[in-house]
Amino acid sequence: SSLTIFITDMKASTYKRIVVLTGAGISAESGIRTFRDADGLWENHRLEDVATPEAFARDPQLVQRFYNDRRRQLSEVEPNPAHRALADFEQRFHGEFLLVTQNVDDLHERAGSQKLLHMHGELNKARCLLSGRVIEHKGDISADVLCPCCQRPTLRPHIVWFGEMPLYMDKICATLEQCDLFLSIGTSGHVYPAAGFVDIARQAGAHTVEINLEPSNTEDAFAEHLYGQAGLTLPHFLQQLL
Ligand code: NAD
Ligand code: APR
């Protein structure tokens, strides 16, 4: 009816610049384990053994095996309704939109997301330790896989380890400072700088919403909270914004 169209148009004009942050929780329903939940990755591995530059220097094979296993898993999982809802929303939303993910899987892009920054790197890329060049790389990384530029076994996973600098920080912070809606989805809020994005958005005057299975470490910083499985809550929540 004409009334429905009127209300829809009013809502579409409410927010013009949206930033979304996602974490491991958004991929949980696809079958990828999170880090800090019960049976999370950090329950079964010491992150100091597999996710630091020091670990890689000490035992590169152990670190490569950890990421090779995770890279192989990508072919066994599919985007879930939460990934698809974000991609669908981006396509239909008329304002500015940026999706920042801490995830190193490729489920957002496989769902169709376009404006997407992987601030903690990507499993499907490798980086040459000598040249710094980043290449697409879908298979295992091992001692007999050579860097295409150096022809030597100098590849490491293109993953931001603990103590390393997250990627795209200038672009992300500049966009947060301009946003009017900030959504945080499936992240425990334990890892900075991502856990501090809500404060930047709030200082910019944005409305802030936490969408998570349970209250996160930074729940107090958010104006609105929506708890439950993201695959169930997010499609409906985003539909309401259009
Ligand atoms: P960190 O949180 O201090 O910083 C992360 C990285 O981002 C650092 O390399 C830092 O240089 C960089 N950084 C910070 N602000 C930045 C900005 N504005 N622009 C660009 N880069 C910036 O350190 P960390 O060692 O990566 O640890 C991350 C978090 O994880 C810590 O809060 C720590 O408490 C937590 N942690 C959790 C566990 C666990 O859950 N088992 C274990 C270890 C650490
Ligand atoms: N829907 C919504 N949220 C969920 C779901 C779900 N189906 N399942 C789990 N969650 C929530 C959990 O309640 C938890 O708060 O997702 C969050 C996942 O938190 P973490 O495992 O800590 O993952 P994340 O916040 O992405 O970790 C940040 O830490 O180890 C580093 O670099 C790694 O990028 C990672 C960073």
In short:
The chain is α/β, with parallel strands linked by helices and 242 residues long.
Secondary structure elements and pairings:
Blueprint: H1 2-12, E1 17-22, H2 25-28, H3 41-44, H4 47-50, H5 53-58, H6 60-73, H7 81-92, E2 96-101, H8 107-111, E3 116-118, E4 121-128, E5 134-136, E6 155-159, H9 169-176, E7 181-185, H10 197-203, E8 207-212, E9 224-227, H11 230-241
Parallel strand pairs: 1-2, 1-7, 2-3, 7-8, 8-9
Antiparallel strand pairs: 4-5, 4-6
Helix pairs in contact: 7-11
This protein binds nicotinamide-adenine-dinucleotide and adenosine-5-diphosphoribose (APR).
Number of strands: 9
In the CATH classification, which architecture of the largest domain applies? 3-Layer(aba) Sandwich
Distinct ligands, ions and cofactors found in the model: nicotinamide-adenine-dinucleotide, adenosine-5-diphosphoribose
Number of domains: 2
Structural class: alpha/beta
- Tally of contiguous helical segments: 11
Would you give the CATH topology of the largest domain? Rossmann fold
Low-pLDDT stretches = none
Q: What value does the Rg take, in angstroms?
A: 19 Å
Structure commentary:
The chain is α/β, with parallel strands linked by helices and 242 residues long. The protein has 2 domains: 1-32 and 79-120 and 166-242, TPP-binding domain (Rossmann fold); 33-76 and 121-159, SIR2/SIRT2 'Small Domain'. The protein is built from 11 helices and 9 strands. The strands form 2 sheets. It has a 6-stranded parallel sheet with strand order 3-2-1-7-8-9, with helices on both faces. Helix 7 runs parallel beside helix 11 (230-241). The radius of gyration is 19 Å and the shape is globular. The two termini are 16 Å apart. The model has no long low-confidence stretch (mean pLDDT 93). Residues 23-25, 28-29, 34-37, 40, 102, 120, 186-188, 190-191, 212-214, 216, 229-230 line the site of adenosine-5-diphosphoribose (APR).
